[in-house]
Amino acid sequence: MTPGLTVFIPVYNEEPILAQNAERVLEHLARLGVPHEVILGSNGSTDRTPEIGAELARKHDNVQFFHVPERGPGRAFARALKLARYDKFVTLDADLSFDMAFVPDALASLEQNDAVIGSKGLGTQKRPLFRIIASDSFIWLTNLLLHMPYRDYAIGAKGYRTAAILPHADKVDVHTFYTQEMVYQIRRAGGRIAEIPVKCEDRRPSRFNLLHEGFYRYGKLFGLWFRSLRD
Asked: What is the architecture, at CATH level 2, of domain 2-129+151-203?
């Protein structure tokens, strides 16, 4: 694929912050000195997010935007992966809760690795304590069942060689479990995965029903574990 950087941001009802945060990302990428693009993937948005995203794509040649009516960041991830123009693929959260220093660090790491995990556990995080505890419990069980050593499986602040994950596009979970799927598949295929510390400050309410999200992700984790026993 063409050398460069694709940044993917899944968006759901981000009308208040989408335009300004997309412009911030574009300004940051322009300073990196590499070919780049931003893909905004609206999934299930019911506010003006689709209109704002479409306007950003008209304004900037290096912005792609799409809207799918069904909610699911994994669904948007799979579509963005097929649209990506460049050989490195980085995911960010729409609220930019991770320090943007992750982007150049990921770009450098992907010169030698197939994936790079931005880890709050290795860095610093300012989040509600109950969310930290819930995340750490899920990470502990993920690593126990799948024999993986990583400290973060959140959607944001992850990077991949596009060619390393394209073969697994059909395995992408449509909701929020796709990071575990991608990391597991790359590791199983013998790919190189690096983990680097990131700074995270996330104080806004979750975009998901946390109880439903917990049942969903644990169900998906046990499903992947059962499949791993047959691999």
From this structure: Alpha-Beta Complex (3.90)
